[in-house]
Amino acid sequence: MVKGNKSLFSRQRNRNQAIQAALGVVITSGLILSSYLLLRRFNLLPSQMDLPQLSLINWDEPNAAVWALAYQAPAQRRSQLQSLAQSRKSADMLRARYLLAVDYLAEGQPKAALAQLEGLERDYTLLAPQILWYQAKAHELLGDRPKAQQLHQAIVKNYPGNPLIVEALLQLNQIDPAYGDQAIAKFPAQPRTRELINQRLAAKPKDMQLLLLLATYYPDSKQTNEIRDRLVKEHSEHLSLEHWEMLANSYWEAGQYNQAADAYAKLPRTPLHLYRYARGKQLANRNPEAKSGYLELVSAFPDAQESAIAMRRLSGLTSAQIALSYLDIVINKFPQEAPAALATKVDILEEQQDSAAATKARQILLSKYPKSQVAAGVQWRTAQRLALRGNTVEAWAIAQAITQNNPDSEYAPEAAFWIGKWAKQMGRNQEAETSFRYVIKNYPESYYAWRSAVFLGWDVGDFTNIWQRQPALQLPKTRAVLPAGSPLVKELYRLGEYQLAWQVWRSQLKDPNKLSVAEQFTDGLLRQGIGDNLNGINQIWTLSSRENEEKKQWQQLRQQPMYWHGLFPFPFKEEIFKNSQALQLNPLLVMSLIRQESRFETQIVSSAGAIGLMQVMPETGKSVANSLKMAEFDLKNYQDNIRIGTWYLDANHRTYEGHTMLAVASYNAGAGNVASWLDRFGLEDVDTFVERIPFRETKDYVKSVMGNYWNYLRLYNPDLATKINQLHTP
Questions:
Q1: Count of domains for the chain
Q2: Lowest-confidence pick of 47-56, 415-424, 656-665
Q3: Which residues pair with residue 226 across a beta bridge?
């Protein structure tokens, strides 16, 4: 017996050693399939064991069939999803079953959903908690609440760290508040948890911890403005320095500068805290307090970079003589701020009519800091003045210097375009064409790239014929792969489960106030997914303010199509196209105007009272609704707003005989102002007219709307995209 047992033990040990040897090879190679084949070769697996199908699934297939289907409406994708769901086991098959179940549940077909969901969690492990949740939802629809509760408890027990369990915790909270405590403790940043916090706050309105949770984890919520104020008013003496810093930064980001300043005053005296106190007071029009704060900063930290900015700010709060002395300190001591200080000095000296000193300061700026943004601005304003006086030759020469010395400045696209236009006026047609091509190649996203394309004779439409064009469009067929976020976030986003992706994303963010470039871009796309279009687009747009190494990351990101698609998305596409086509109005023009007016925010109301997507004034809405025979309308309803807004934009075009520049300017500033400008400036040269519009807001508005139009066209019209790409071909 003993001998036999030893023999058995030896055989088992040898078997184990063989398994370890085989696995050693496998771990080195990292191939699951190799693992299986090696174990089979050594007869180390039971003969009846089948090859695990999941191990062969390619989850990273970039062109998986299901991604295109996830972009489609349920009715469009139904038959193809059903076909994939019945195919052999693969990532496409599992995702197809999941999407079918989602569609069936949305249509109130729980039995059909359960047929797709049954056992799916075992193979589609990444979404297992959500699959079980959908199973529970199906059972609830069938009236089997005990089964649903059992599944909720299984979700919580088996996936304790997964943010997707919050829904189950909230359901179980109705039975036992301990489950709600767990949601708040483990997932305070999960957007669904906020609803529970608000419920508890309603029962205990003075609970400081609940208020702090809302202020900390939901700083950009509209509700949080009131929450922050309540914390300061009701719990000021109990707030820690950490709390005050959170409140100060949160107020600052929300644009509540006076409250931010008061919160920064509670913090230790650092250059940043003192600067933000003073700047906050200045932005709140409390200049005496601002001046006092700037002076304290300069006195306490004379060598800090914030002090240089403070001295520049002080120049607007003191007498000219004192301002000049501060500016001279900045010019001599802080090279980074010197260009801006010199420009301010020029303005002050010109106001004092000291032209010699102003000229000298300007010369120092242009000779010592020729590559600065400020120098480019000074040069461009000089060129514009010369051009208005008819001295296009000298203006042309200055514009040339801007494109050479400051190619990355905000003035370079405009200068490069006018180089071409002035060259054309001087009969230098070849130089003009070269300049226009340069603008499109180097500044393809700019308004001036569109104007250049017009002068090159490209078929992109001009102010006089864009109105009723119907451009051919080719939209993306799949969602982008997010550059940041966990595999779970990325999977949910590509499946079109935007709310779930957003919930997981917010739960997993370490610090929403300190996002990397990739994280901020991802945050922008996810916000757009849940309909927060204004903040979503702005998150992407403000990436341009990053500096140093992060600026390089932004520049790399903007080379990718998904960056531009994020900046120029297509919300409300069906409604916009339907109403535009009914009026024979260019749908991209409507899309471009909405992007500028509201960033696709349906509930937005301007300070003047304009409402909704197309920022329609109530009186205008009422008048147009009468013309359209709409008995009832709501300007915050996107369908009503688009119908009324497109009619009004079309009517503006008819007023100006299809001239889009005048129609768009009138949409912003009103017909009376446009008539006045036409009387003053005439319309011999439309580009000159745009530059001479005296309302800065309207001038920028016209350029922005038409720049939006150009970007939608260059991104989604395949012929134009090809033409632009050819400029980069040697």
A1: 5
A2: 47-56
A3: none
Which pair of tokens denotes residue 324? 């000049």
- Please classify residue 329 by burial: count the beta carbons closer than 10 Å to its beta carbon, then call 0-12 exposed, 13-18 middle and 19+ buried: middle
Place of tokens 């701020």: 337
What's the rounded Cα separation, in Å, for the pair 117 and 115? 6
pLDDT in tens, 524-575: 999 999 999 999 999 999 999 999 999 999 999 999 999 999 999 999 999 9
- pLDDT for 67-105, tens place per residue? 999 989 999 999 999 999 999 999 999 999 999 999 999
> Token digits for 221?
């919520």
Q: How far apart are CA 714 and CA 461, in angstroms?
A: 12
Distance CA(174)–CA(253), nearest Å, equals 36
Residue 341 lies in a domain: no
* Verdict on whether the full-model pTM lies above 0.85: yes
The mean predicted confidence, pLDDT, of the chain is: 91
- Domain enclosing residue 23, as ranges: 2-48
Q: Residue 345 pLDDT > 90, yes or no?
A: yes
Q: Which pLDDT score is estimated for 262?
A: 98
Residues 6+ apart with CB under 8 A from 194: 214, 217, 218, 221
Q: Do 494 and 586 fall into the same domain?
A: no
574 is catalytic: no
Give the integer Cα–Cα distance in Å for 681 and 690. 10
Residue from 597, 657, 691, 697 carrying the catalytic annotation: 597
**Inter-CA distances, 180 with 135, 186, 191, 374, Å:** 21, 10, 14, 55
**pLDDT one-digit tens code per residue, 27-61:** 333 333 333 333 333 333 333 333 334 445 777 77
User: Which residues are CB-neighbours of 612 under 8 A, at least 6 positions away?
Assistant: 598, 602, 603, 604, 635, 636, 637, 638, 641, 645
Query: Is residue 141 domain-resident?
Result: yes
Per-residue exposure over 542-559, b if at least 16 CB sit within 10 Å of its own CB, e if not: ebeebeeeeeebbeebee
Long-range contacts of 198-201 (CB under 8 A, 24+ apart): 198/223
Q: Do 577 and 721 fall within a single domain?
A: yes
Hey, what amino acid is at 484?
Answer: A
Does residue 578 sit in the same domain as residue 710? yes
